[in-house]
Each structure stands twice: as C-alpha cells, then as structure tokens.
Fold these 2 entries.
Entry 1:
Amino acid sequence: MSRYNYNDNNYTDTFIYRNCGMTVPPPEAGGSHRNHCPHSLWSLHVDLKKGDRRCGCRGLMQPISVWVKPSKEWAVIHRSQSCGFIRTNRIAGDDNEMILFRLAAEPITMLPFPAKDTLDKII
Ligand SMILES: [Zn+2]
C-alpha cells in the first residue's frame, strides 16, 4: 500500500484517499486511471486537461450531482472547493451506488416550487 501521488496518473498501488481516509484499490485491469474515490466520490483538482496533472489548485473536488449523457452513461459532476472549477468524470463500476443515488435524487427532494401543482399539470 502506498500514499497516492497525484503526479502519477498510472499508479498501480492501493492508496489511502486524503478526504475520507478509505483505502482505494487501483483501477481494475484494463481500466483507465481512477480520478475519484470510489467510496466518497470526492476528487482533487489536479488536471488542466483530463489526466495531465498540471493544475496547481490541488483543492478537494466535491461531487455535487450526476449527469446522464445522451449515451445513457452516468458521469459525476465535481466542483472544486478552492476555485469553483466544475468538471464531469465518468463513473466506475465500483463507485458507491448509495452516494450516486443520493446525488441523483437530491434535486427532486428539494424542489423550489410546489410539487403537487406541477404534478397536476403533467398528469
Ligand atoms: Zn480548483
């Protein structure tokens, strides 16, 4: 086990993620590099372009929502807590499904208008 070096985007070791303290395994064989913790779904703002590790921000990136692409593939929307930068990242097969579900359901549980009135118009 080693500490994750975010300058190394081809790591193969297990590491302890700095945000949640959980152990993160390397990507499955044949997969691409991992860009967020599968337990907490948090990430770090380290890329200017995906995978280049050239960004000096290094701020924690909070998972704020999900995006369902036209291909039906899900992506996590991350926002840097340091600079506000927003980026989408593909989900992985071992990502925490409960957190993904919460991110997807959160907007519908916090509607800024009365749900009943809107439902009456739709149905
Ligand atoms: Zn940032």
Entry 2:
Amino acid sequence: MHMLIVLGSPRKNGNSEIMAQHVAQGIEKGGGTVEYIRLNSLNLSPCQGCGGCEGTGNCVIEDDMVDIYERVDAADRVLVVSPVYFYGLTAQTKIFIDRFQARWSRKHILGVRYRQEEGRKGYLLSVAATKGAKVFDCNLLILKYFFDALDMAFADSLLLKGVDHQGAVRELPAELERAEAFGRDIVTGVR
Ligand SMILES: Cc1cc2nc3c(=O)[nH]c(=O)nc-3n(C[C@H](O)[C@H](O)[C@H](O)COP(=O)(O)O)c2cc1C
C-alpha cells in the first residue's frame, strides 16, 4: 500500500506536517510506503475556469501539476494535509484541489472512470488554533467532493484543534501517538 501525502501548509515543520510525519511512521511500521509533495515549494497556477479540460479530461496549464496528476493516479491512498485558514483550506491546498476539475470533467462530462474498483481511499489531516465546533466543516465538505472526483472514497479524517504556534503539537505526545495509530489503521484497512 502506497500513500501520497500532500502537505498544504506553507509552514515547514508545522503542526500539520508533524502530525503527517507520525501518520507516515505508522504506515511504514505497518509495511506500507509513503511519499510527500510539498505544495508550497511548487509552481502551481490556480484553475482558470477555461473549460479546456471538458473536451479532453486534461488541464491545459503546464506547470508542476503535470507531475502531481501522475503521482496521485499512482497512489493507493492520498492524505491531504492542511491547517485551517479562515475556516477553510490553505490557498496552496485549494489551488491543488481546484486543478482536479480536470478529473471532475473526465468523470462527469466524459464518463471516464479511473481505478474505480480498486478501493482507493483518501483522507484529510487538518489542524486549527481554535476549538470552534465547526472549525473543520468546510474542509471536510471540500475533501468529500475532491475525492469523489477522483473516484476515491473519502475514508476518514484526522483532526486536531487547539494548536497554534509552530511545533506546538510536539507538546502533545498523545496526539502524535494518535496520528501514528491512524497510519497503522490505514495499512491494516481499519480506516
Ligand atoms: C492565515 C491564517 C488563517 C488562520 N485561520 C484560522 C481559523 O480560521 N481558525 C483556526 O482555528 N485557526 C486558524 N489559523 C491558525 C492555524 O490553523 C494554526 O496556527 C495551525 O496550527 C497551523 O498549522 P501548521 O503549523 O501546519 O501551518 C490561521 C492561521 C493563519 C496563518
């Protein structure tokens, strides 16, 4: 089982990334493999809404997404990692997601399905500074429709409230253990 971890925070070694590293440890201890994409280091243009993908299923923009599409297609599991920014995803993560309009077009306009029978799964890892009851609602809804466009099940989410300063989650060993257990559960198929 191979997982692609998509890091959406601009902050290196931030709370979401540290949690993702512990998920990765759980996956590797369980015999799976992981690879990372750090969105903030890439050249990614936002979707232009041009409709170019509606005829071909492919995006007309030639930037680092070309490689990302291939890596997402090749993965058995995809973990999208983003802190909450103004009750949503980071801009980097939203650009990544919007560019999958090309996959939405492929599925819903062209009727092309991809690895549909293989039980591929997607997950959200999100962190937030506050403890608002609805702080993850937008991100959960976006991820539901993102994974649907990819013919993947949105299988589960790992959410952590109340972490703000860089690396704050290191002071919460129970949360790091929860992240590792989340990774182990993905390998065993519990999640
Ligand atoms: C631009 C910006 C917007 C934010 N908006 C929210 C918010 O709406 N709700 C919240 O609880 N935290 C918000 N935060 C706090 C981050 O979610 C928090 O610091 C998180 O731990 C950052 O994760 P990271 O270390 O992985 O980057 C915001 C932070 C920034 C920089």
